[in-house]
């Protein structure tokens, strides 16, 4: 019985862990649709393609997310410290009005798109294994993912990845 419980615990642990840290987005993730502030649909591939040659910090957030709001002062500090970096905000708000009000309310400067399926559905959120927001990712100038997962804006790996780009 003890061995059965040990095996069950190990199986649950291993199935909950994601050891994958990809350096490129999958084609299905890149084909997922985003909505611009003007209401136009575009693919994630088209969005990140605009920033070839630039460093990108992706911030996946929502207007209703307390941890996202709590992390915004740090993101604003990073914007001042790394002005050459593109700050790409991907909202998982289900209502466009809440998303747009959140941008204004929190005075968020950067590039803004919405993941219209929210944080539980869609090829992009499946690829990044989105289970918690905020979520921060760093891309280098060629689109390589340098930092796949940070969930706290004060995570030292964010600054480390941004400095690595300089």
In words, what does this structure look like?
By secondary structure, the protein is an alpha/beta fold. The chain has a single domain (about 20-165), classed as Glutaredoxin. The chain has helices spanning about 1-15, 25-30, 45-50, 65-80, 95-105, 125, 155-165, and strands at about 35, 40-45, 55-60, 85-90, 110-115, 135-140, 145-150. β6 and β7 (about 145-150) form a beta hairpin. Residues about 5-20 have low confidence and may be disordered.
Summed up, the helix count is 7
- Number of domains in the coordinates? 1
Straight-line N-to-C gap: 55 Å
Determine the CATH topology: Glutaredoxin
Instruction: Name the structural class.
Output: alpha/beta
For the record, the CATH architecture stands as: 3-Layer(aba) Sandwich
Radius of gyration using CA atoms only: 17 Å
Shape summary: globular
CATH class: Alpha Beta
Helix percent band: 25-40%
Question: Main sheet?
Answer: 7 strands, mixed
What is the CATH homologous superfamily assignment?
A: Glutaredoxin
List unreliable stretches of 5+ residues. 6-19
Mean pLDDT across all amino acids: 86
**Sequence of strands across the biggest β-sheet:** 2-1-5-4-3-6-7
What is the H-and-E element order? HHEEHEHEHEHEEH
> How many β-strand stretches?
7
Attribute tags:
Glutaredoxin; seven-stranded mixed β-sheet; 7 helices; 7 strands; 40% helix; 20% strand; globular
Give the topology, please.
Blueprint lengths: L1 H15 L10 H5 L1 E4 L4 E3 H6 L6 E6 L4 H16 L4 E6 L4 H10 L5 E4 L8 H5 L7 E5 L5 E6 L5 H9 L2
Parallel strand pairs: 3-4, 4-5
Antiparallel strand pairs: 1-2, 1-5, 3-6, 6-7
């Amino acid at each position: 019985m003890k061995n059965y419980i040990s095996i069950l615990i190990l199986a649950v642990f291993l199935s909950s862990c994601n050891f994958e840290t990809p350096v490129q987005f999958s084609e299905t993730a890149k084909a997922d649709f985003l909505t611009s502030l003007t209401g136009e649909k575009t693919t994630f591939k088209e969005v990140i393609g605009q920033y070839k040659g630039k460093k990108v910090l992706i911030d996946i957030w929502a207007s209703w997310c307390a941890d996202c709001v709590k992390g915004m002062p740090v993101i604003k500090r990073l914007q001042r410290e790394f002005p050459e970096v593109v700050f790409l905000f991907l909202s998982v708000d289900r209502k466009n009005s809440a998303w747009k009000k959140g941008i204004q309310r929190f005075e968020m400067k950067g590039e803004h798109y919405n993941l219209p399926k929210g944080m539980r559905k869609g090829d992009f959120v499946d690829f990044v294994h989105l289970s918690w927001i905020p979520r921060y990712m760093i891309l280098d100038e060629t689109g390589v993912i340098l930092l796949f997962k940070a969930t706290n804006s004060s995570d030292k790996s964010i600054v480390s990845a941004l400095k690595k780009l300089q």
